[in-house]
């Protein structure tokens, strides 16, 4: 059935697009200077020890060390490394071909023909922000209000209104070139953005393909599609969004450049790289320090311990934060006992409630592009005149098409807009026996939390305030990648009972375990087909469907195609240390403190109880900024 049926092919396609410019220039790496190179040079104790020098970890470290009295140590598994694979913005996907990723495969996915999937996450100072595709987006307001809704007796402000100041603080918005803005009719609204409060930038390329605006306009023919004036407005619709890019250097802007490179001269901010944390050290149920394998040690039993006077802060990401809690004896007793780890705190939610955005392939081409759509993105791999122009332009002036990462426009649409059966699917979800779709022996509190999430999403399915559908707009053919923004299935990330430390965590997406995901994805594919080839607005483009192909027609055809082609991950792992009440299987409370443990918080993507309807990085930065405030330092001080 068709070709191009795997994500790998799609990524290869994206890479091909710009392959011949990959090594066109090489960024001179920053010297590793104030980094603590040897474990014996560490202080015996720090106020805070942060596990994981990634997106959230470096953000919190930066904010806490704004107070010169506060000492912070960040321990990072990966290296402090510089590479053009990290800094290059063009194509947005060089990070994927970099050596700075974990080597983890999921367990075979029963509903995907037993396929396994690579579990992608950055293993480098900067974490996944160093390897991601640089799409700078937020979810809708309802996504963040949903997090707060699980806490009937609010003690903190986990809502859209409560997070908006942190979204603003987290990034410095740089406006696009006025000429590009005007020619592409770009819209944005600086009300939703900060300026100068962060070293991480939301920037824009200095070129847009002319078809992008026209392609956005095609959505005006779909009833109910909104066009919010800004990507950060908290509304679904069709809009422009920026890129995690330093506008002056025209390079990736990420946690390392924004929260470490300029801050490392602070004598109270220490970072040790190439060091794997193996355990949170507990005295009873109080976190007192961290055990890690220092750089150079080859033996995973030979650890060094460092003491945290105030708190241990876990920021190892959606895959590794639950893994480290379980290794430390904090997690579901059944899982820990099987691995012969003594249970310190029986916390059934650790590693459960695992979510990621499933991606589908659906590829369309236009056989008659109007001249106003040219040059189109396809020129970058089919037209050598255009390619060499773009390469020269970038090498001389760092402008032009090679300053584009993965594009700056997309559709994020609510379910009633894309599906004629939103009410019936919503009712089916409401009346489901929710726990029947979780693993056998799931703890009743985790099942209760899942049911609460499903009822919230059932409401969202019949409203127009939550986006369920995402397709990137390129200004030419479709990219082929369509995203289900609110999957209903839930997976697990657990330690391997056979020698947990020696092995990677066992990652099971449990893709499509809730059969309503197949119904939702079917409607996502049918909408995509109708949008491209059953739409008077696109007729003059002479569209043609390449994938899935016209032999896919019935519900069964779609179900088969979905099983064959779905990627269970858009590299957005969340939910495994969910911020929910303990009675709902939560792992952290509204202050991000781990239930049942003193002086231990989680501050990364794993605390999101449900996915936002958008790529997760900007949300992680906002969560980390709020976490720094909750911890109570740094944020009180004004930055210069
Ligand atoms: C390939 C890819 C593409 C993506 N594209 C986008 C995009 O375009 N837009 C977007 O918004 N989001 C994107 N994302 C998602 C986004 O980057 C992540 O959601 C976000 O960066 C996660 O932040 P985090 O702090 O939770 O984890 P991370 O940034 O991954 O940080 C965790 C850190 O902990 C370290 N660590 C783990 N275990 C240990 C240990 N035992 N000891 C010491 N350190 C440890 C890791 O090495 C890592 O540095 C993408 C992600 C990937 C992987
Ligand atoms: C997938 O694996 C399971 C368990 O090993 C097996 O029962 C099943 O037949 C396999 N399915 C496919 C499609 O190969
Ligand atoms: C909310 O408060 C009520 C009344 O104090 C209490 O009974 C209930 O358990 C609380 N719920 C949660 C989730 O904390
Ligand atoms: C920007 O957004 C604010 C808040 O919604 C609104 O009041 C304002 O009118 C918007 N500005 C423009 C130019 O659309
Ligand atoms: C959502 O949008 C669709 C499409 O425009 C419309 O038919 C429906 O009435 C809207 N639903 C609500 C609850 O506003
Ligand atoms: C553990 O905590 C107890 C009670 O606070 C204290 O007396 C003891 O010294 C601590 N042990 C260690 C090893 O720090
Ligand atoms: C264990 O670590 C210590 C101190 O870091 C080092 O001296 C020793 O050689 C290491 N042993 C092994 C087996 O790696
Ligand atoms: C190739 O690109 C150049 C420069 O943009 C353009 O003039 C030319 O028409 C293109 N050729 C084709 C075959 O599209
Ligand atoms: C680079 O910019 C300069 C100044 O705007 C311009 O004169 C020159 O033509 C540009 N170079 C290329 C290769 O377009
Ligand atoms: C719901 O599913 C669970 C788990 O499969 C099962 O134990 C329970 O009996 C089911 N409840 C009903 C009412 O069918
Ligand atoms: C094509 O679009 C029309 C009008 O929107 C719709 O009634 C029809 O069902 C669509 N055809 C298919 C095959 O979905």
TrEMBL record:
<dbReference type="Pfam" id="PF00732">
    <property type="entry name" value="GMC_oxred_N"/>
</dbReference>
<feature type="domain" description="Glucose-methanol-choline oxidoreductase N-terminal">
    <location>
        <begin position="257"/>
        <end position="358"/>
    </location>
</feature>
<protein>
    <recommendedName>
        <fullName>GMC oxidoreductase</fullName>
    </recommendedName>
</protein>
<keyword id="KW-0285">Flavoprotein</keyword>
<dbReference type="InterPro" id="IPR000172">
    <property type="entry name" value="GMC_OxRdtase_N"/>
</dbReference>
<dbReference type="GO" id="GO:0050660">
    <property type="term" value="F:flavin adenine dinucleotide binding"/>
</dbReference>
<feature type="domain" description="Glucose-methanol-choline oxidoreductase C-terminal">
    <location>
        <begin position="487"/>
        <end position="624"/>
    </location>
</feature>
<feature type="binding site">
    <location>
        <position position="277"/>
    </location>
    <ligand>
        <name>FAD</name>
    </ligand>
</feature>
<dbReference type="InterPro" id="IPR007867">
    <property type="entry name" value="GMC_OxRtase_C"/>
</dbReference>
<dbReference type="GO" id="GO:0016614">
    <property type="term" value="F:oxidoreductase activity, acting on CH-OH group of donors"/>
</dbReference>
<dbReference type="GO" id="GO:0044550">
    <property type="term" value="P:secondary metabolite biosynthetic process"/>
</dbReference>
<dbReference type="InterPro" id="IPR036188">
    <property type="entry name" value="FAD/NAD-bd_sf"/>
</dbReference>
<dbReference type="Pfam" id="PF05199">
    <property type="entry name" value="GMC_oxred_C"/>
</dbReference>
<feature type="signal peptide">
    <location>
        <begin position="1"/>
        <end position="24"/>
    </location>
</feature>
<dbReference type="InterPro" id="IPR012132">
    <property type="entry name" value="GMC_OxRdtase"/>
</dbReference>
<keyword id="KW-0732">Signal</keyword>
<feature type="domain" description="Glucose-methanol-choline oxidoreductase N-terminal">
    <location>
        <begin position="46"/>
        <end position="171"/>
    </location>
</feature>
<keyword id="KW-0274">FAD</keyword>
<comment type="similarity">
    <text>Belongs to the GMC oxidoreductase family.</text>
</comment>
């Amino acid at each position: 059935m068709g070709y191009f049926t795997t994500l790998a092919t799609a990524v290869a396609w994206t890479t091909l697009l710009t392959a011949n410019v990959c090594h066109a220039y090489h960024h001179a790496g920053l010297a590793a200077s104030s980094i603590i190179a040897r474990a014996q040079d560490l202080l015996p104790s720090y106020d805070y020890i942060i596990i994981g020098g990634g997106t959230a970890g470096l953000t919190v470290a930066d904010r806490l060390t704004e107070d010169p009295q506060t000492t912070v140590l960040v321990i990072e598994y990966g290296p402090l490394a510089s590479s053009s694979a990290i800094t290059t913005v063009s194509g947005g996907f060089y990070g994927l071909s970099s050596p700075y990723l974990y080597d983890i495969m999921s367990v075979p996915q029963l509903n995907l023909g037993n396929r396994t999937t690579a579990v992608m996450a950055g293993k480098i100072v900067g974490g996944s922000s160093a390897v991601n595709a640089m799409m700078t987006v937020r979810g809708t307001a309802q996504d963040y209000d949903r997090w707060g809704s699980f806490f009937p007796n609010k003690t903190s402000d986990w809502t859209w209104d409560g997070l908006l100041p942190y979204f603003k603080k987290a990034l410095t918005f740089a406006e696009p070139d006025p000429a590009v803005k005007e020619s592409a009719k770009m819209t944005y609204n600086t009300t939703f953005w900060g300026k100068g409060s962060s070293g991480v930038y939301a920037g824009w390329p200095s070129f847009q393909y002319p078809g992008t605006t026209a392609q956005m306009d095609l959505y005006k023919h779909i009833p109910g599609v909104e066009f919010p004036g800004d990507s950060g407005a908290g509304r679904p619709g069709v809009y422009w969004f920026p890129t995690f890019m330093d506008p002056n250097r025209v390079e990736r802007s990420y946690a390392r450049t924004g929260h470490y490179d300029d801050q490392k001269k602070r004598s109270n901010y220490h970072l040790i790289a190439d060091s794997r944390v193996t355990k949170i050290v507990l005295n009873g149920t109080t976190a007192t320090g961290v055990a890690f394998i220092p750089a150079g040690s080859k033996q995973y039993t030979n650890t060094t311990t460092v003491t945290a006077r105030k708190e241990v802060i876990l920021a190892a990401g959606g895959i590794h934060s639950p893994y480290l809690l379980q290794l430390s004896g904090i997690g579901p007793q059944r899982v820990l006992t099987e691995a012969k780890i003594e249970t310190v705190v029986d916390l059934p939610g650790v590693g459960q409630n695992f979510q990621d955005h499933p991606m589908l392939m659906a590829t369309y081409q236009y056989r008659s592009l109007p001249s106003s759509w040219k040059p189109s993105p396809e020129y970058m791999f089919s037209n050598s005149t255009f390619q060499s122009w773009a390469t020269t332009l970038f090498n001389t002036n760092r402008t032009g098409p090679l300053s584009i990462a993965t594009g700056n426009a997309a559709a994020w649409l609510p379910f009633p807009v894309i599906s004629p059966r939103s009410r019936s699917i919503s009712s089916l979800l409401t009346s489901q026996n929710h726990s029947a779709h979780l693993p056998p022996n799931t703890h009743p509190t985790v099942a209760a939390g899942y049911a609460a999430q499903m009822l919230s999403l059932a409401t969202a399915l019949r409203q127009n305030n939550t986006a369920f559908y995402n397709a990137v707009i390129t200004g030419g053919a479709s990219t082929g990648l369509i995203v289900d923004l609110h999957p209903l299935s839930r997976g697990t990330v657990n330690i391997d009972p056979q020698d947990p430390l020696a092995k990677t965590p066992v990652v099971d997406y449990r893709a499509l375990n809730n059969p309503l995901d197949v119904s939702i994805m079917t409607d996502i594919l049918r909408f995509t087909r109708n949008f491209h080839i059953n739409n008077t607005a696109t007729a003059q483009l002479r569209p043609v469907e390449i994938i899935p192909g016209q032999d896919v027609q019935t519900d069964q055809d779609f179900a088969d195609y979905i099983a064959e082609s779905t990627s269970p991950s858009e590299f957005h792992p969340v939910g495994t240390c969910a911020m929910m009440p303990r009675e709902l299987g939560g792992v952290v409370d509204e202050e991000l403190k781990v239930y049942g443990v003193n002086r231990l918080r989680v501050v990364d993507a794993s605390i999101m109880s449900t996915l936002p309807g958008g790529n997760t990085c900007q949300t992680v930065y906002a969560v980390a900024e709020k976490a720094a405030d909750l911890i109570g330092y740094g944020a009180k001080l004004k930055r210069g």
